[in-house]
Amino acid sequence: MLTPRYRHLIYSRNYGSEFEELIGRGLTRAAIESEIKRITTETLMVDPRTASVHSFFFEHREDAVYFSCSVSTVRGDIFTIDSLAKGVV
């Protein structure tokens, strides 16, 4: 989740996220949250063991958005991921 997409040649185009591009672009909170949901879901659904990504929670702080979500696996397990989206430093 924290690996920027397209930055490291070792990772294929299927891995990583574009969170750095969200913060500081003047988007509304609703737009940022929507994009975080989309990016997170797309990033995690690449793995064939992921069944769904749901139950997002957001906390906005200065130049970052902290978030968590639940991930269901194809085996029926559910776990929580905590992450953040922040602008380029």
How is this fold's topology laid out?
Blueprint: H1 29-45, E1 50-61, E2 64-73, E3 78-86
Antiparallel strand pairs: 1-2, 2-3
Please explain how this structure is put together.
The protein is of the alpha+beta class. It has one domain (19-86). It has 1 helix and 3 strands. The longest helix has 17 residues, at 29-45. The radius of gyration is 13 Å and the shape is globular. The chain starts with 28 loop residues before the first helix and ends with a strand.
Mean pLDDT: 83
The major beta sheet can be summarized as: 3 strands, antiparallel
What is the domain total for the residues? 1
Question: How many alpha or pi helices?
Answer: 1
Number of strands: 3
Order of helices and strands: HEEE
**Mind telling me the C-alpha Rg?**
13 Å
Class by alpha and beta content: alpha+beta
The termini sit apart by 17 Å
| Shape annotation | globular
How do the strands line up in the largest sheet? 1-2-3
* Proportion of helical residues: 10-25%
Summarize it:
The protein has 89 residues and is α+β, with helices and mostly antiparallel strands. It has one domain. 19% of the residues lie in helices and 35% in strands.
Keywords:
alpha+beta, three-stranded antiparallel sheet
